[in-house]
Amino acid sequence: MATTLIDKLAILSDAAKYDASCASSGTTNRNSLGTSGLGSTEGMGICHAYAPDGRCISLLKVLLTNFCIFDCRFCINRSSSNVKRARFTPQELIELTLDFYKRNYIEGLFLSSGIIRSPDYTMEQMVEVARSLREDHGFRGYIHLKTIAEADPLLIEQAGLYADRLSVNIELPTETGLANFAPEKSGRTIRKTMADVKYRIDARKDADKSKTAKPSNNAPRFAPAGQSTQMIVGADKSTDADIIKTSETLYSGYKMRRVYYSAFSPIPDASADLPLIAPPLMREHRLYQADWLFRFYGFETSEIMSSATDGMLDLEIDPKLAWALKHREWFPVDINTARKEVLMRVPGLGAIGVKRILSARRQTRLRLDDLAKLTQSLKKVLPFVETVDWTPGHLTDEENLRARFTPPPVQLELL
Amino acid sequence: MISVTLKDQADFGAWKVAARKLLLNKIAPENVNWAAPGGMQSLFEMSAQSIDTLRDITLTNALTVSSSFVSIAERVICHRDPERFARLYRILWRLQTDRQLLKQTTDNDIIWMTDCDKAIRRDRHKMHAFVRFRKVGEGRYKREQFAAWFEPTHFITRLATPFFMRRFPNMDWIIVTPDCTAIWNGQDLTFAPGGTKADVPADDSMEKHWKVYFQSIFNPARLKVGAMMSEMPKKYWHNMPEAADIPKMIETAQARERKMRAAAPAMPHPLAAILKSRTASLENAADIDSLSQARNAIQTCQMCPLHCNASQAVFGEGPAHANLMIVGEQPGDEEDIAGRPFIGPAGKILDEALTAENIDRSSVYVTNAIKHFKFKLRGKRRIHERPNASEIDHCRWWLKTEINFVKPKVIVALGTSAAKAITGKTIKISDCRGDIIDLSKGRKLIVTYHPAFILRSPSPEQQDMAFKALNLDLARAQRLSTSEELSQT
Q1: ipTM of the complex
Q2: N or C, where is chain B less crowded by C-beta within 10 Å?
């Protein structure tokens, strides 16, 4: 067992890296001017560094301990793993957080933990770290606490008073997947925890609304940055359709701010019943794109999945383009007259591009030159739109349109 | 030609004063020559007339410009583009006759301004992110003192450093950049000329911890160097202590991944088996011989597929031995979240009806025929879906359990699903609404409208009628449940 602070940090951050979430955005605006404390959050999250895996480092993401009584197959910290173990004292972790924060390394703390003794005991320790940062040190930075689904709802209530965000991971999209790979967890307790968190966030909001006077800035908020969750992609046999369906249910049921998709990645001392494959990064990427389409682009999940094969999204082209190629009857779209919702469906046009088009066409009839200034991917847009001086003609309906967007086949070498 | 020489590279106030004077003197943009300190004097400029020679004009009606232009210009003035003073003045000039100019997203000046603004915001954001403080020591009253060296791409030190004041008001700090030094002493944020890297300490005791963290949080199995480079370009690396290790991390990543994949799974740690036997013994299901045991046991019910998507089973609520039991159809969205029956819109109608008839809800046992929320997704909402016969059938077991423990004298069934769950038969409400129906053990049943039916009624008249009927039936049930006659049987 590790004893020095630096060894503990190495083990307990290594153990935490499989959680994709590192967001520090979407909480209340606050700063420390006129207080004796430290820290601020100003809406936008800040990524203080990027690791060579492309992931943002915004928070000190660590476990309180990686000892765990649960035996989830996909997890590096499962009880049957031979990984090195360590445990921070709350005091060590509090000081480390403050020291990192003062040097501008981080936006705050993302604390998770293996489950030791009991879910309640573990949750209590985590809440104590958050409480002390807030109350003893006047810390106004960002705190994200992982809630342990099996813990007493009263502890979750307390966690929400100190944390900006709470999260509990759904882990796998189906109940069967969970039963097979995480025998001590159940979708039931996970959804119950999500419901409890949502209930308290809503109750807090209702209380604010019902006050006739301006709500006091000092009123304790409950998890102002809401809740999020994570699903592991590629550890079990679930399809993209399973994943998207579960995701949609979570967004609408519990007002998730984010559902993170995390490609299952090989871990040291892996369990024998897991695929030892390279992490399916492209699949993860396509799932995020699909997620965006149904949350912000007005697509129904059934529309997105209409271009899938056996419930799996196309890996070669993005899901919006895949949909457009299957539904050519929507195109070409007239850039000068089409409604916003229709423009949002054009491959290559994003929310910013559409906004610019709408603004520009109030002033003038748009030509191809104008469109080139308004979008970054003109080549992708062209087969699907019309301007004053451009029409794609047969291009829209061309049989091999898909080939324009897929990477060229790798040429084989003659032996 | 009029020449304007600004004293500072990014002083919006000075630019504004000059631009205002030029505008009032009706000097067209093509007749102005702007220069910042350190710029080359052009031949042009030497022959030009200084702005100081222009008249100070005061207008009766103020010169106005949209506030969004001002806030963008305040940032764009920090850009390194030497043309920025002139181009901003040209936009200001054009804005006088074309108030819609900012919305012309295809105009070249506007595209230029938008791009510059984006670059400045990004530069400022990166400064907030990548500044690394090193501890210098402690000052008066043990205030900690920190210093940082940073090289922003543009002249953004004044723009970007108030952020650090709001975040770290209780430390003393300086941020040194090549063009400008920001100094915070707990009272004022002041600015001095730029400095060099040598002005700040060369190390900090926490840096080795930070580097260990940076290396440990990296997952070598998902190497995405391009994604890292686009968000954290190399130009920032030499001032970030953790970045020194990046090349080695990339170099060894693939070998580390291969090693993990090739390693044969080790024997499970023996602790796991011990833990497993301990938890298994806790999971022996108990027999149900009280209402509260049933309340716990239903949470693990998997008799029908509805448990897969609902948050929890919503059990009945009320006295363990109530005379009157009200049975609805199934929990809705709000009930599913809160875990309590009839608290959503339909619950409010029920409460109104109970209050109108002087029935205390806490004296009534309120429950549903189906205990899990059944829904379909529409957009971002979960919409109630009618339970089918098999779901009603499976869940009857729980309703019967509740009835057996509570032993109500009278049951009110709200809607057809509840009536079906209680009687096992399909009942048309219009045929028997308000009738007193005999159940076994002397128990009586009254069937009436579900409050949700009232909410869905198309006209106010129909709503009114249905609501009156609900009130009438509840009142009748209440009278019946307290009558002597029934309690004797």
Answers
A1: 0.93
A2: C
Contact in structure between B96 and B136 (CB atoms under 8 Å): no
Residue pair A397/A330 in contact by the 8 Å Cβ criterion: no
For residue A37, the 8-state DSSP code is: -
Nearest to B317 by CA among B350, B285, B286, B345: B350
CB nearest B337 (choices: A187, A198, A278): A198
Min Cα–Cα distance to chain A from B256, Å: 9
DSSP type of residue B234: G
Question: Which segments of A30-79 are extended strands (E)?
Answer: 49-50, 56-57, 59-63
Assigned architecture for domain B291-488: 3-Layer(aba) Sandwich (3.40)
CA R_g for chain A:
24
How far is residue B325's CA from residue A386's CA, in Å, rounded to a whole number? 65
| CA distance linking residue A69 with residue A90, whole number of Å | 20
How far is the alpha carbon of B104 from chain A, nearest alpha carbon, in Å? Answer: 5
The CA distance from B348 to B10, in Å, is 61
Which tokens sit at A223? Answer: 């998890």
Helix axes A240-254 and A187-210, enclosed angle (nearest 10):
30
Domain residue spans of chain A: 5-209+221-279, 281-323, 327-404
When the pLDDT of each residue in chain B is averaged and rounded to a whole number, the result is 90
Candidates B138, B156, B137, B133; CA nearest to B76 is B156
Domain A5-209+221-279 coded CATH 3.20.20.70: yes
pLDDT of residue B282: 45
Domain residues of chain B, as ranges? 2-126, 131-199, 207-259, 291-488
Instruction: Give B139-198 as a DSSP string.
Output: -GGG-EEEEEE---SSS-HHHHTHHHHHH-TTSEEEEE-SSEEEEE-SS-EEEEE---GG
Q: Where are the alpha helices (DSSP H) in A2-152?
A: 5-14, 90-102, 119-135
Tell me: pLDDT of A284 over 70: yes
pTM confidence score = 0.89
Cβ atoms of A252 and A8 within 8 Å: the answer is no
**CA separation, residue B13 to residues B9, B20, B338 (Å):** 11, 11, 56
- Give the DSSP letter of residue A386: E
Token pair in block for residue B486 = 């029934």
DSSP strand E in A267-388: where? 333-334, 385-386
What gap in Å lies between CA B47 and CA A318, rounded to an integer? 59
Chain A residues in contact with B231 by the CB 8 A cut-off are 47, 50, 54, 56
A163 contacts A133 by C-beta, under 8 angstroms: no
Chain A residue at shortest CA distance from B283: A184
Pair B181, B205: CB distance under 8 Å: no
Contact B295, B315 (CB under 8 A): yes
Give the model's pLDDT for residue B45.
Answer: 54
What residues form DSSP beta bridges with A229?
A: A259
Neighbours of B226 (CB within 10 A): 9
* Spatial distance between the Cα atoms of B2 and A157, rounded to a whole number of angstroms: 67
- Least CB–CB distance from B381: residue in A60, A199, A252: A252
Of A51, A99, A248, nearest to B206 by CB-CB distance is: A99
Mind listing the pLDDT tens digit for each residue in B410-444? Answer: 999 999 999 999 999 888 998 999 999 999 999 99
Q: How confident is the model at residue A113 (pLDDT cuts 50, 70, 90)?
A: very high
Return the closest-CA partner of residue B315 out of B287, B292, B334, B333: B292
Closest CA to A17 of B94, B222, B471, B297: B222
| B360 token code pair | 């205390």
Query: Which residues, 6+ apart, have CB-to-CB distance to B200 below 8 Å?
Result: B134, B136, B147, B148, B149, B174, B176
d(CA B286, CA B266): 37
